From TrEMBL:
This is (Fe-S)-binding protein. The chain crosses the membrane at residues 6-27, 69-86, 106-125, 145-163, 169-189, 196-216. Pfam families: CCG, Fer4_8. The keyword Cell wall biogenesis/degradation does not apply. Keywords: 4Fe-4S, Iron, Iron-sulfur, Membrane, Metal-binding, Oxidoreductase, Transmembrane, Transmembrane helix.
Length: 681
């Protein structure tokens, strides 16, 4: 039997077995995902493919960190280019002839340049992990094994190319600079020695390639396969919209997610798409202030639990072969509690639902919906939640506000901010004809500081000639806090009551000063029947200033930095309108700090955290206030009553409240439109 035939048989045997092992691992991962609840994926091919092309081939999410993004682009496209080179090399080893490519010299040059770029990229990756020591990157042999795989794979290309040139007696060439350099070192070898060297490099390349193939689906690098699918199948509902629960399902034994298989199959795809890059955790306000929550670890712990439990479940099926690649925890994974055994309650209640993790994730993972699903199980099925959060929800249920103040006092703010009835604030009953419903919200109705925002906005509405009315005591809580804290039952009850009231008065336009109310009305109420245009007050203020209905003419000599609310910015992409208003005011110096726009850090109030005490680490609002103070402002502006409260508390704790004020956009605009003295606010 000739040597070439033996080599061909060995090639088929080794490659076939590797492909079989690869397929076996992928198949089992597929079986684990199938354990989840089926999910309907909307057939929106055009929109999905556009997003897919932008994020997969444009690598847009990775470029949020430009250095890392460029490095990954080099590796991503480098491997695509090198696939032809790998096929060319394999054919040379099997039949002694490469690919019949026109302009083969240029093809060789492209391959060598690509190899050099990938080696440089891997060197930079090693530098970032072990010398620069980025906190978000893990260190150790496991995270680094892929670096060795790729580096040795690239070196095997050069080794094979160099020995091939010596064997064939080909001189140095500018079209193959690296392999020519290598060939020069071994130019004295005999034909037999060079042939042995070539096939050593050839087998080295093949075995590394196949080992990498088997390793990928068992590691975080499974994202190479799952991430593009994950992005393609990502939900197309409005950003940040939570899935609803069918609370009338009499067959349901529990609500929310209490077992790993109660997640949807799409959520499980998220688990296997995680890159473990740590971008989510590095931006998480809870983690960065010393809380237990790490969005990355949340996903990886759920992934590992799914793998262990999935292996235990599928191994009991007679038609599923034994699986050798799943890791098992100590004890039976079938008996491990998801909440308590895998994810702690402390982690779940640390989340502010700011979605900074999701915005940073390069593979389209959604973290917040999983946390809310787990919270729903705690609240609706187990009846478990922190005491202060439970008190806030009970107060909302009984009196319609988190403080438990009488629901009949909801309209008292009108007399307190306008004792002489100069603003002409009327309820929908008193004024049947109006353009906008001003939804005041619990903060504007009961919180003394937030009332000043409502006061300033009403003055501006009157100045602009806008017809509006309020609901008065008929207004109820929007339901954002109950929904984000996991009490879907209370949310749906409030939602139904509010929509019925809106329909009763034929309300078509709603404006609110609260981004949380704005989001839930605009993105989540429509599923339950709301048909109305919903506006945040900064959107309307921007329109009215541009239309000349409001004229900011008085000088406001202040250095202002603007804090982007999570629910206004990342959730609804309202970034420019508040800034446009500030830029229209004479005298203002608008300064940006590093964590702004989509990278803005949460104030710490979202996800119900406004009503719960932080018991671990640094207070989130203090950390955020320190960032805002870094640009030496005289005023910190916001467009959210929650954010304003948290920032004001932060300036007090930092003992700078006399030098730096916290003001809403409406309050600052009112200073310029009316020439109001700052102390009047």
């Amino acid at each position: 039997m000739s040597g070439s035939l033996i080599q061909f048989i060995l090639f088929l045997a080794v490659t076939g077995y590797a492909v079989y092992l690869f397929g076996k691992v992928v198949y089992h991962r597929y079986l684990y995902i199938r354990l989840g609840k089926p999910v309907y994926v909307k057939k929106e091919a055009k929109a999905r493919l556009k997003k897919f092309a932008i994020e997969v081939f444009g690598q847009t999410k990775l470029l949020k960190d430009k250095k890392s993004g460029i490095m990954h682009i080099v590796i991503f496209y480098g491997f695509i280019i090198l696939q032809l080179g790998a096929l060319d090399l394999i054919l040379k080893g099997l039949i002694g002839q490469g690919l019949p490519i026109p302009g083969y010299d240029y093809f060789t040059l492209m391959q060598e340049v690509t190899v050099a770029l990938i080696l440089f990229a891997m060197g930079y990756a090693t530098y970032r992990r072990y010398i620069e020591k980025l906190k978000r990157l893990k260190r150790g042999w496991k995270p680094s094994i892929v670096v060795f795989f790729i580096c040795f794979l690239m070196l095997s290309v050069l080794v094979s190319g160099g020995f091939e040139r010596v064997r064939d007696g080909v001189g140095a060439s500018g079209f193959a600079p690296l392999s020519s350099l290598f060939a020069g070192v071994f130019s004295g070898l005999s034909h037999t020695g060079a042939t042995v060297g070539f096939y050593t490099g050839w087998w080295m390349h093949l075995l590394i390639l196949l080992a990498f193939l088997i390793y990928v689906p068992q590691s975080k690098h499974f994202h190479i396969l799952t991430a593009p699918i994950n992005i393609l199948l990502r939900r197309t509902e409005p950003v940040g919209k939570l899935a609803s629960l069918d609370l009338e399902d009499e067959s349901a034994e529990s609500f929310g997610v209490g077992k790993i298989e109660e997640f949807t199959q799409k959520q499980m795809m998220d688990f296997y798409s995680c890159v473990e890059c740590g971008r989510c955790t590095s931006m998480c306000p809870a983690h960065s202030t010393g809380k237990m929550l790490s969005p990355m670890h949340l996903i990886t712990k759920l992934r590992d639990h799914l793998t262990e439990k999935g292996a235990a479940i599928t191994s009991k099926s007679p038609w599923v072969p034994a699986f050798a690649f799943a890791g098992y925890s100590e004890g039976n994974p079938l008996n491990v509690e998801l909440i308590g055994g895998v994810i702690t309650e402390e982690e779940l209640w640390a989340c502010t639902t700011c979605r900074n993790c999701e915005d940073q994730c390069p593979v389209g993972n959604e973290h917040v919906d999983k946390i809310i699903d787990l919270r729903r199980h705690l609240v609706l099925t187990q009846g478990s939640m922190p005491h202060d959060g439970q008190r806030a929800l009970q107060n909302i249920e009984r009196q319609g506000n988190p403080w438990g103040i009488s629901r009949n006092d909801r309209v008292k703010w009108v007399k307190e901010v306008d004792p002489e009835d100069q603003l002409g604030v009327k309820t929908v009953k008193e004024k049947p004809e109006f353009e906008y419903l001003l939804f005041v919200g619990s903060m504007g109705s009961y919180d003394n500081r937030s009332r000043k925002i409502i006061h300033a906005f009403i003055k501006l509405m009157n100045e602009a000639g806008i017809s509006f009315a309020i609901l008065g005591n008929e207004e109820k809580n929007s339901g954002d806090t109950p929904r984000r804290m996991g009490n879907e039952f209370l949310f749906q009850q409030l939602c139904a009551d509010n929509i019925a009231t809106f329909q009763k008065y034929n309300i078509k336009k709603i404006v609110t000063t609260c981004p949380h109310t704005y989001h839930i009305f605009k993105k989540e109420y429509p599923e339950f029947g709301l048909v109305a245009d919903v506006y945040h007050h900064t959107e309307l203020l921007d329109q009215w200033v541009k239309a000349g209905l409001l004229k900011p003419s008085h000088q406001v000599d202040e250095r202002i930095t603007y804090h982007d609310s999570c629910y206004l910015g990342r959730y609804n992409e309202v970034y420019e309108q508040p800034r446009n208003v500030l830029k229209a005011i004479p005298g203002i110096e608008l300064v940006e700090q590093s964590r702004s726009r989509e990278n803005s850090m949460c104030c710490g109030a979202g996800g119900g955290m406004m009503w719960m005490e932080e018991t671990a680490g640094t207070r989130v609002n203090v950390a955020r206030t320190e960032q805002l103070l870094s640009v030496n402002p005289t005023i910190i502006s916001s467009a959210c009553p929650y954010c304003l409260t948290m920032v004001e508390d932060g300036t007090k704790l930092k003992e700078v409240e006399d030098q730096v004020k916290a003001r809403d956009i409406a309050e600052i605009l009112a200073l310029s439109v009316f020439g109001m003295p700052e102390k009047s606010l």
